[in-house]
Phosphate transport system permease protein PstA (Breznakiella homolactica), 290 residues
Amino acid sequence: MIKPKNIIPKDRKNQRLTDRVLWWIMAGAVALVIGVLGFILAYIAGQALGHLNLGFLLGSASQGGILPMAVTTVYVVAASLILALPVGILTAVFLTEYAGDSRGVRILRLAIETLAGIPSILYGLFGLLVFCRILGFGQSIIAGACTLSIMILPVIIRTTEEAIKTIPDSFREGSLSLGATKFQTIRHVVLPSALPGIVTSAILAMGRVVGESAPVLLTVGIAKNMPRSIFDSGRTLTIQLYYLTKEAINPEDFGIAFATAAVLIILVVIINTATRIISSNFRKKLGGGL
């Protein structure tokens, strides 16, 4: 009896085996990431569950609550993004759409990359000297926001610049061929197309602002009172979490610290969601036509 020959080439068999192995490796990596993240969230939630109540969420610092710290955190994040986003986006548009490859532009890019690598404590010292003392803001939310806005500028510029670079030149050429000016093309074609990347830059910048402690400690302060304006001192949730863990002497104190961490995570999720909703509506307005 004649045995049928294997018509599948050996190289193709090896390729299928390689693809299968790579698939399992990637699936394992995804499962590892999800597992670690899920474990961290579940552990924090488990430790914080007994302390999350209305008194904790809405109470003052003297009552064991965190409402003043949450409000201060929102103020700092919002003010930092309001100051940094326009400057960062306009700088990225200039570098990609107007600037060439001159020596001055290369120096500017080098300066931006250098700013991205400076330790945050140096930004804090700069903010303490310039905004708190020279400009007379003192330790306040506005001083911290100005400091943090400078710190997150490189993140916004680089991420937005990369998003704009991914837009095909055919989009710009098509808009210009229809009689649109360069400004109209940037406004109605380039920016709406790059908006997902811009939103990503805002989220990354926000994450860094929320997680910072050294520059916030030096410029915003540690006051536990409810801030009445951006010119008041305050204490963010990150600083509150630092002091809770530093001064904790029993399991109850650590539970309150985990509850603060849970609120911080929830706050970040809420701000992320709101940012995406606002950007979606803004993109529809920008893309309404030339």
